[in-house]
Design a protein that fits this description.
heterodimer, A: about 650 residues, alpha/beta, Alkaline Phosphatase, subunit A, nine-stranded mixed sheet, about 10% strand, B: about 80 residues, about 0% strand
Chain lengths: ~650, ~80
C-alpha cells in the first residue's frame, strides 16, 4: 500500500477524523461522569459540541504544518514518496502520540475504577512503563516498517472522513440548541472618568474597594496579626492600622467554592460550585457582591491569574465591568484562559484535559522557576486603574496565585529558610494535593519552608502594590481587604489542599480589613466566616444587602463593638452531585472553641469528631466520646442547616 | 546533549497531567466504566473487523437485491 500525496485537503480531512473520532473521545470519556455532576445533559452536549467544532483549529494547524513540511522537503530535493511520508507523518504523529497517552490513561483509570485497586506507581515504574511502550512501538515499526504503517493509518482515516463530518454536523446542532455566551468585550469606561480629579469627586462618591485574595495562604503560616510576622511583614504592617481577624474561616478547602462564597455570601451547599470546574447554580448567579456594587455606581473589576478564581469560571461574569485573566507562563493555563471567552461552558476544562500533555511540558520547561508571579496581577490592576480614571468608585478584586504550588520562590526570598541544594526544581517537588505517608514528614517540612519563602515573595509584591496605591493617593481613602481563598496543609498526611480534609491550616486564613481613613488597628479573635465578607463590604459601602446571604455584616466588630457569637461552617462536597439529594460530604461547625467535623456518606452512619481548638489547635484529640451532648448539639445545628440547604436546592431545581 | 536529555525526559514523562493538579473525584464513574470498553470495542472492531463487516454487508446486499454490491472488494481501504 502506498501513501497518497499529502495535499492540504487530504491532510485536513485525516487530521479532523483523528481529532474528532479518536483523540477527543479518549480525552472526554474518563471525565464524563464528573461533567454530569456539575452540568445538565443538554449543557454537557453543548460543551462537547463546541469542543468538537473547535477541533477544527488543531486539525487545521497540523494539516498546515504537514503541508509546509512536505513542501519544504520538496524544495530541498526530496522525491514524491518521501515528501508524502513527511507531510503525513508531521500531521498525524502528534495526534497519534497524545491519543496513545490518552488511551493508556483511560485504560489505567478504567482498570482502577472497576477493580477498586489503588496502585501507586512510582516515577521509576512510570518511566519503565513508558520505556516498554516505546520499545513495543519500535518493534512494531521494525516489523511493519513506517511507510506501510502510515499508509494503513491514512487509508483508515480516509474511510472515516464521512463519519467525522457527520459528527461535526451533530456537534453544530448540539451547540445551536443552547448557544454559549460569548465574553470578549468589557463595559466601556464612562466618558468623564479620565478628566475628573480625585479631589472633586472623593466626597461625592463611595470609596474605592480593593479585595486582594492570595491563593493557598494559611493563617498559621502568614501570621498576619503578629506585628513581628516573619513571613508577611508588609501585611502585618497594614494590619497594625486595620482590623485583623485571627479566626477567619474559609467555606471550603479549594478555590472554586471559596471564591464563589466570597462573591455571593452563600455557602457551598447553596451555591453548589463544589467541584473544581463547577459553576454556581443559575439561581444564585444574580446574588452577587459585584452586581450590587455595580448597581450603586461602582465599576467592578476582577483580575486573576487563577482561572478557578475568575467570574468567567464560576458563571458570575455578568456582574463585572471587566474580568481579566492576568498572565502566567503555563501553556496549559493559557489555553484555559483563552477559552473563558465562552464563560458559561465547561470548555476550558475539556480543552485542558485534551491538551493534558502541556502540563508535563510546562513542568520541564519551567525548571527552577515558578510559572506564577503576583506582580503580573498587580501590574494589571494598576493599568486598569490608570485606564479607569477617578470619577467612578472602583471595586477591584485581585486574586494572585503565589504562594500556590509549585513552591519555587524568586531569588529575592529563596534560600532564606531552606538552604540551596534541595527542592530547587519543579520536578523535585512532591505532587500537589496528595496524601503522604508519615515517613515523608521531614521532606514535607522542607516543602513548607519553600512555601513560606514563597509567602515572603508574595508579601513583598503586595507591599510594592500598596506602596504604589499610596503614591497615587488611593490607599488611605480606600476600603482594603486582604485575605485568601483557602489555606495549605503540610501536616496530618496531606500536602496541598482540596480533597476531603478540613483541618485548621486548610480553612483558617488571614483577614485584614482596613476601613477608609482607619489608622488604629485591632485584633479580633471571634470566629467569623468567609460568607460574612460580601455582606460586610456591602454594608460598609452603603449598598443594599444580599437577601439570601448566609453570612452577616461584621460592621460592629470593625467599629470596635461586639457581635453575638455565631457558628461558622466549612465543607467539602466534591462527591455531591447538584442533581441528587444532599447526602455526601464532610462538614465542619466551629462554635466558640469547639469544632465538630461530620462525615456524611450515602448509606453509611454519620461519623463525628469533636476538637477543642483552644486546648488542641492541631486537632489531634477527638473528644466526641467524652462530650456526646456537645456533639449532639452541634450535629443538630448542622442537620438543620443541611435541611435548609436541601430545601433550597430542590426549590432551585424546580425552577 | 542537555537539549537531548530534556527532550528525552519530556518524551518519557509526557503523560497527560491535569492542569493545576486538581483531580475531579467524580471522573471515572459508572458511565466511564461502561463507555470506555464500548469505545475500545468500536475502535477495535473498526480496525480489525472492518473487512469482515464489509464483506458481510456485501453478501447481505447481494442476497437482498440479487445483484452485486455497487462497490467491489478492491474499493475497501486499509487492506
Amino acid at each position: 500500500m502506498t501513501l497518497p500525496p499529502a495535499s492540504l485537503g487530504r491532510l485536513l480531512g485525516a487530521a479532523l477524523a483523528a481529532c474528532v473520532l479518536l483523540w477527543l473521545p479518549l480525552a472526554v470519556i474518563p471525565i464524563l461522569d464528573g461533567l454530569l455532576f456539575v452540568a445538565s445533559l443538554r449543557e454537557v452536549a453543548r460543551d462537547l459540541g463546541l469542543l468538537t467544532l473547535l477541533a477544527l483549529v488543531p486539525a487545521t494547524l497540523l494539516a498546515l504544518l504537514g503541508w509546509a513540511a512536505q513542501a519544504l522537503s520538496g524544495a530541498l530535493g526530496a522525491r514524491a514518496p518521501s515528501r508524502a511520508f513527511i507531510g503525513w507523518a508531521v500531521t498525524l504523529a502528534p495526534l497519534a502520540w497524545d491519543s496513545a497517552w490518552q488511551g493508556v490513561r483511560m485504560l489505567w483509570h478504567w482498570s482502577r475504577s472497576v477493580t477498586g485497586v489503588e496502585a501507586s506507581v512510582s516515577q521509576g515504574m512510570r518511566m519503565l512503563a513508558v520505556g516498554v511502550l516505546l520499545a513495543a512501538f519500535a518493534l512494531l515499526l521494525w516489523r511493519v516498517r513506517p511507510a506501510p504503517l502510515l499508509a494503513r493509518c491514512v487509508a483508515a482515516l480516509a474511510s472515516l472522513r464521512g463519519a467525522s463530518l457527520a459528527v461535526m454536523a451533530l456537534a453544530l446542532l448540539a451547540v445551536l440548541q443552547r448557544p454559549p455566551a460569548l465574553l470578549w468585550r468589557e463595559d466601556p469606561i464612562p466618558a468623564a472618568s479620565a478628566a475628573t480629579s480625585a479631589a472633586t469627586t472623593a466626597a461625592a462618591r463611595g470609596p474605592d474597594i480593593f479585595l486582594i485574595s492570595i491563593d493557598a495562604l494559611a493563617a498559621a503560616d502568614a501570621d498576619a496579626c503578629n506585628p513581628q510576622s516573619a513571613q508577611m511583614p508588609r501585611l502585618a504592617a497594614l494590619a497594625q492600622r486595620s482590623s485583623c481577624f485571627s479566626r477567619f474561616y474559609a467555606a471550603s478547602n479549594f478555590t472554586t467554592p471559596t471564591a464563589s462564597t466570597m462573591e455571593s455570601g452563600l455557602l457551598p451547599w447553596t451555591h453548589f460550585a463544589t467541584q473544581p470546574e463547577a459553576k454556581m447554580l443559575d439561581t444564585t448567579r444574580g446574588h452577587m457582591l459585584a452586581a450590587r456594587l455595580r448597581e450603586q455606581g461602582w465599576r467592578t473589576h476582577s483580575i486573576t491569574d487563577n482561572p478557578l478564581a475568575s467570574p468567567r469560571h464560576r458563571g458570575s461574569f455578568a456582574a463585572w465591568s471587566s474580568s481579566e485573566m492576568a498572565r502566567n507562563t503555563l501553556y496549559a493555563n493559557w489555553v484555559r484562559q483563552v477559552l473563558t471567552v465562552f464563560p458559561d461552558t465547561g470548555l476550558p476544562r475539556l480543552a485542558a484535559t485534551a491538551l493534558g500533555f502541556l502540563g508535563a511540558f510546562d513542568k520541564v520547561r519551567h525548571g527552577t522557576t515558578s510559572p506564577y508571579a503576583s506582580e503580573r496581577s498587580y501590574v494589571a490592576v494598576l493599568q486598569r486603574l490608570a485606564r479607569e480614571g477617578r470619577s467612578a468608585p472602583q471595586f477591584v478584586w485581585v486574586h494572585t496565585l503565589p504562594p500556590h504550588s509549585p513552591y519555587l520562590p524568586p531569588p529575592s526570598t529563596r534560600h532564606r529558610l531552606l538552604p540551596p541544594g534541595e527542592l530547587e526544581r519543579w520536578s523535585d517537588m512532591l505532587p500537589d494535593n496528595i496524601e503522604y505517608a508519615p515517613a515523608l514528614q521531614p521532606l514535607v517540612d522542607k516543602h513548607r519552608l519553600r512555601y513560606r519563602e514563597s509567602i515572603m515573595a508574595a508579601d513583598a509584591a503586595l507591599g510594592e502594590f500598596l506602596d504604589e496605591l499610596q503614591r497615587q493617593g488611593r490607599l488611605d481613602g480606600a476600603l482594603i481587604v486582604i485575605s485568601a481563598d483557602h489555606g495549605e496543609s503540610f501536616e496530618q498526611g496531606l500536602i496541598g489542599h482540596a480533597g476531603p480534609r478540613l483541618h485548621d491550616v486548610l480553612i483558617r486564613v488571614p483577614l485584614v480589613l482596613k476601613l477608609p481613613g482607619q489608622q488604629v488597628g485591632r485584633v479580633i479573635g471571634q470566629p467569623v466566616s468567609q460568607a460574612d465578607l460580601a455582606p460586610t463590604l456591602l454594608d460598609m459601602a452603603g449598598a443594599p444587602p444580599l437577601p439570601r446571604a448566609e453570612g452577616r455584616s461584621l460592621r460592629a466588630l470593625l467599629e470596635g463593638g461586639a457581635l453575638p457569637p455565631a457558628p461558622v461552617f466549612s465543607m467539602t462536597m466534591e462527591r455531591q452531585s447538584r442533581f441528587r439529594p444532599l447526602s455526601s460530604g464532610r462538614f465542619a461547625v466551629i462554635d466558640g472553641d469547639d469544632k465538630l467535623v461530620s462525615e456524611r456518606q450515602p448509606g453509611a452512619p454519620v461519623q463525628d469528631q469533636l476538637f477543642d481548638l483552644r486546648a488542641d489547635p492541631g486537632e489531634q484529640r477527638d473528644l466526641a466520646a467524652q462530650r456526646p451532648e456537645r456533639v449532639a448539639a452541634l450535629r443538630a445545628l448542622l442537620d438543620a442547616r443541611l435541611g435548609a440547604a436541601e430545601a433550597a436546592r430542590l426549590a432551585a431545581q424546580a425552577r | 546533549m542537555r537539549l537531548l536529555a530534556r527532550v528525552l525526559f519530556f518524551v518519557l514523562a509526557a503523560g497527560p497531567l491535569p492542569a493545576l493538579a486538581y483531580i475531579d473525584p467524580n471522573a471515572g464513574g459508572l458511565l466511564f466504566q461502561l463507555l470506555a470498553p464500548l469505545f475500545v470495542a468500536i475502535v477495535g472492531g473498526w480496525l480489525f473487523l472492518r473487512r469482515w463487516i464489509a464483506d458481510a454487508a456485501r453478501r447481505l446486499w447481494r442476497r437482498i437485491t440479487g445483484r452485486a454490491s455497487p462497490s467491489g472488494p478492491n474499493d475497501e481501504v486499509g487492506e
